Amino acid sequence: MTESGPATLPVVDMSLLDGDEADQAAFRDALLQATHEVGFFYLVGHGIGRDVREELFATARDFFALPDDDKFAVEMLRSPHFRGYTRFGGEYTQGAIDWREQIDLAAEYEALDDDARATAPAYLRLDGPNLWPPAQPELRDVLTDWQDRCSALGLRLMRQWAVSLGSPEDVFDEAFAHHPSTLIKLVRYPGREESADRQGVGAHKDPGVLTLLLVEPGKGGLQVQFGDRWIDAPPLDDAFVVNIGEAMEFATDGYLKATMHRVQSPPPGTERLSVPFFFNPALASTMPKIDLPPALAAQAPGVTEDPSNPISGTFGENMLKARLRAHPDVAARHHADLV
Q1: How far is CA 323 from CA 128, 216, 224, 329, 338, in A?
Q2: Cα–Cα distance, 262 to 274 (Å, whole number)
Q3: For the segment 295-325, what is each residue's pLDDT rounded down to a tens digit?
């Protein structure tokens, strides 16, 4: 790391957890340093095989190659739970259009009935079924397997963070014990001319706990804010890009801080595929406030104060806020009373 900050993201090797106590302590130290100083890192040694990852990307390519009518059959506009396909220009970040197409598929729980909807917290409206494309029945099996693998990886990371922050290993477990609100996106960014607006997805922070991002090999575009500059974060062989979200900032009183990031569109004649997995607690759960050791507490500046983007400890409040802003057409059709 230079005086002005890192030139690239730090690398954290999860295979150290299979070593002795010194190796495990080294992993936790690296994890804590990366997320305190940068908020992003490359995770290697995670144990998810290349064959599994290649199958995931092949399945994503097959989805995006479907005829438009098959994709529109599962368009998010049909879902009050913000699930399904979003066409180019259908999502917004900070009021500007993101130039990508994607499908959102989340953990499935029973939707509120009409009586419950009238009295329950509004964020519980996000629970419900996915829109699985009939034209690609194998998508459900592949993404359910990916959800299971990434959830196990996410929980293992959360337990290591807990110990590194001076808390019992299971301090976060309860938040994820019942109805964790995980989310997978398959995302395709098309190439754009250099003269065009290059916003693939605009600068933002994730509203949840942690994100495990898999990017197609050889495809750049991800940029992470550090101070007043942007760090390029191209994919690293066999690595996830991992970042923390606003819920972890809340839990650590700002010692771990959610970081702004964005994606620039790829060059003309190319495309970029990515698969972010968002490991989040139940919508109604409140992340525990960690009692930090004095040395860490002294470096915790508090949760970011932004009246236009307040951070709540209840995950569902953060997620609903993000969904209503990102998909105003879905919000207007299904949740007019909230906008």
Answers
A1: 15, 25, 22, 11, 11
A2: 13
A3: 999 999 998 877 777 777 788 998 999 999 9
Both tokens assigned to 269: 């004649």
Q: Number of structural domains, the chain?
A: 1
Is residue 1 scored above 60 in pLDDT? no
Is-contact 275 186, C-beta < 8 A?
Answer: yes
Residue 3: inside a domain, yes or no? no
> Within its chain, how far is the Cα of 154 from the centroid?
11
CATH of the domain at 54: 2.60.120.330
Residue entry with tokens 């340093």: 33
Which residues span the domain enclosing 35?
11-338
What DSSP string runs through 242-271? EEE-HHHHHHTTTSS----EEEEPPPTT-E
Do residues 11 and 240 make contact, with C-beta atoms less than 8 angstroms apart? no
Measure the CA–CA gap between 339 and 336, rounded to whole angstroms: 5
Radius of gyration of the chain (CA): 19
* Residues 246-277: tens digit of each pLDDT: 889 999 999 998 999 999 999 999 999 999 99
Residue 275 lies in a domain: yes
Short-list 160, 123, 170, 327, CA closest to 242 = 160
Cα–Cα distance measured from residue 192 to residue 185, given in angstroms and rounded to the nearest whole number: 21
Phi, psi (deg, nearest 5) at residue 183: -145, 135
AA letter at 318: N
- Is residue 150 a contact partner of residue 242, using CB atoms and an 8 Å limit? no
Query: Whole-prediction pTM value?
Result: 0.94
Packing angle of the helix pair 21-37, 138-164 (nearest 10 deg): 100
Cβ atoms of 204 and 261 within 8 Å: the answer is yes
Place of tokens 């992003």: 40
- Does residue 194 lie in a domain region? yes
Whether 4 is in a domain gets the answer: no
Beta-strand (E) ranges in 57-180?
84-86, 91-93, 96-98, 101-106
